[in-house]
Amino acid sequence: MSSLHDTAAEWFARLHAPDCSDQERQNFKIWYHKSSAQAQAYDLVSTIWQASGASRVSSGQSASDVIPSNLSRRKIITGAVALAVGSLAVLPNPAEATIRVTGTGQQKKFTISRALTILLDSDSSVAAREQNNILDLLYGQAEITSRLMGNRNTVEIDQWKISLSSGNFNFSKSSLKSSITVLKGRAALAHPAMGGVQALVEGERATILPDNRLLIDRPSLDDILAWRSGRLSFRNTPLSEAADEMNRYARRKLEISASAANLRISGFYHFGQNETFARLLENFLPVRATFGQTIEIVKL
Question: Which of 36, 41, 89, 224 could form a disulfide with 175 if both were Cys (CB 3.0 to 4.6 A apart)?
Answer without folding.
Answer: 36
